[in-house]
Design a protein that fits this description.
The structure is a homodimer of 392-residue chains.
Chain A (H helix, E strand, L loop, with lengths): L3 E11 L7 H7 L5 E5 L3 H4 L2 H12 L3 E4 L8 H14 L3 E6 L1 H16 L4 H4 L11 E5 L11 E6 L4 E6 L7 E4 L9 H19 L7 H23 L4 H15 L13 H13 L3 H16 L4 H10 L9 H18 L6 H4 L5 H12 L14 H10 L2
Helix pairs in contact in A: 4-5, 7-8, 7-9, 7-11, 8-9, 10-11, 10-15, 11-13, 11-16, 12-13, 15-16
């Protein structure tokens, strides 16, 4: 096992009607002028945004609002938010939405508080020195950004998608009302469940010698999300299932399921990031489309973990060779993906990259770290290309 | 399931030699003058205290030191610490030790920052409005106080033991080096493992409708501590087992294993608190001595949970009636306690209260909350007395 840091300072307020506490929480964390970052029209149509601004009005907290955070949130909107915060002397950010709104708000926070070009942080050039305090009202269980140190932004120029991690960006509070996720389209719900599972699986499939307690928590989380994703595929208004998935989303990416590991594998995410930069596909669906090809390419190099996953998460009978058990586990997860209508290859995802595009993605994906990435199996550019090809 | 708040802001720094980072962490959290609260001689004899003061000297951070925090830490030492902090203009507390040193430091922090008589908070008379910032170097995995909101203090006058919970007291950082726990006597290690398991079990045996993800995490944690407690009973220098238990100790009591529950049962703790006030027994051993009698008294009122515990934690075959399975689970946990040399009744604990003392403990234990306490089964004073009697 490895040494680790664990830091999850976010105040979580979980349950029905908890969005009513937004003004109180902003005040508690020192906000006096707020930028509300939201996404598309759904938080407007549902009346949530109105309820939030009514609460702020009633509490006498001034605000400005900035909509338009799209999936794979854009750098141009981040720049716009930074300018708006400076002009309006904003000292607190409130993201109302899912990962797109939260990640965009984090980037705005870094840009305002750390100065300079915010893209520098995402482009590995500088580290942020500060971030505006940030609160969240979550409407989509998926990215775990409401408790995580992570933010992913896409620069339109060249469609480059990059993540930046810093404890400075962890939200001060996260309001989580599972009812706010009930009106999501089934496809987005399934994408969210996939993303949540992948955040833990990226930390699980390593060669570093995980802690037993971390594995036990990770496996419990994966079993829970899997079971409740299947419930939601049939009964999307099930409050308890929404709640299980929502809380799992936060725990899956706040660091808990990686304590004592080598940091994780993260290759499925990295491979999907290139795809998401190029095609603007839903992140969860992109992960599902790539995972099986990645898993078959790497499992022999991480056999004890794949065997354990098969038995403890996918309920595979532990009979036969380790290879057979591991492969059955991979097949069982793909079968689960199909049951919740997730793709298991690029064709089912609805994209058909050319060979040139595959090569370009593999090349971009391999940039930056000594030519080798991943933990389950160390991958070079040629390996990444092979996985992309297998995922066609 | 119930709504919940979850707040664990403590920065955890986990691994070998992490105590070397103490000065850096104190600075990060704004400390300029430190009170070091420690316990008995072990942190002196081991050289840990010297290493800590050397680090502070090297960093130019002034400090005063206050030893003497004993198991069931005393109010008189808390008063002494408060006076010392005021006289020396201390703005940061560093607890070096286990739960006794940490709980004593929390009480000092409330007393200094909130003013008035600090016992008021423990005597349900007032709520603290502030606490001095507190850091921890943990030398004993047991109480979970290094991440929890809880602190337990004993007033010598009448030997009253009371707990106070407030998010204000949660430590800013916790340095956890499993090596620092390797020299503990076996008995204390086993007491710690018992306390850790009980913190999760108190949250587990309820009638409120827990979340599946919380149950899965709780069961994984309990299985991990159980397995590693048995390893440590034979191989106390096993680093990985020390690490599993140490991290489980924090997660067991930071709130994670109670998310979505009704707040938990806590009767074993309450019954033990009265015993601990009267006899000054080791807390973990006191819990083990009472748990079986409590469990047999209440299990029929909480049968689905006791059955689940038996199967998912104690590996009982799910055949026979629910009653039989539940009882086998209780017996299996008692057998585990015996294997790690914990008592399963008061005689084995080494105390023999008179009937008058039992009545007095039951009376004190029942004070305060409408005459009924607990979740697995609501208990009145007569029930508490019956459990005490059964535990003889």
């Amino acid at each position: 096992m490895f040494d680790f840091n664990y830091y999850t300072p976010t105040q979580v307020v979980f349950g029905r009607n908890t969005e009513q506490r937004v003004a109180e929480l902003i005040r508690r964390f020192g906000g006096t002028k707020v930028l509300i970052q939201y996404g598309g029209g759904s938080v407007v149509r549902s009346g949530l945004l109105q309820r939030v601004t009514d609460s702020l009005d009633a509490a006498g907290i001034p605000y400005v609002a900035l909509g338009g955070a799209v999936p794979n949130p854009r750098l141009s909107l981040v720049y716009q938010g930074i300018e708006l915060c400076k002009k309006e002397h904003v000292d607190f950010l409130l993201a109302v939405g899912g990962g797109s709104a939260i990640d965009s708000a984090k980037a705005i926070g870094y840009g305002v508080a750390s100065g300079g070009d915010v893209w520098d942080f995402y482009d590995y050039k500088r580290k942020a020195t500060a971030c505006l305090p940030l609160g969240v009202i979550l409407t989509l269980a998926a990215t775990g950004s409401e408790m995580s140190d992570s933010s992913v932004i896409t620069r339109e120029e060249g469609w480059v998608k990059r993540g930046y991690n810093s404890d400075l960006g962890r939200p001060r509070f996260a309001i989580m009302n599972p009812e706010l996720t009930m009106t999501l389209p089934d496809y987005q719900t399934a994408c969210g469940c996939t993303d949540i599972m992948m955040h833990t699986m990226e930390r699980y499939f390593t060669n570093g010698g995980n802690m037993e307690i971390t594995d036990a928590i990770a496996e419990g989380l994966l079993r829970t999300v899997k079971a409740n994703a299947e419930i939601l595929a049939k009964d999307p208004k099930n409050y308890d299932a929404r709640a299980e998935v929502m809380w799992a989303g936060s725990l899956s990416h706040n660091g808990l399921t990686g304590c004592g590991s080598d940091g994780g594998d993260w290759m499925t995410h990295k491979l999907e990031h290139e795809l998401g930069g190029l095609y603007d596909v839903a992140h969860g669906a992109g992960l599902a489309a790539i995972w099986g090809s990645w898993a078959r390419y790497v499992y022999k190099n991480c056999l004890p973990r794949f065997r354990r996953f098969a038995v403890n998460v996918m309920d595979i009978e532990p009979t036969g060779s380790d290879d057979e058990i591991a492969l059955k586990g991979i097949e069982a997860l793909e079968a689960f993906f199909r049951r919740i209508h997730m793709p298991t290859n690029l064709r089912e995802l609805g994209v058909e990259p050319t060979e040139e595009e595959l090569k370009d993605m593999a090349h971009k994906c391999a940039v930056g770290v000594n030519g080798e990435k991943g933990s389950a199996r160390r991958l070079r550019e040629a390996d990444m290309l092979a996985i992309y090809r297998a995922s066609m």
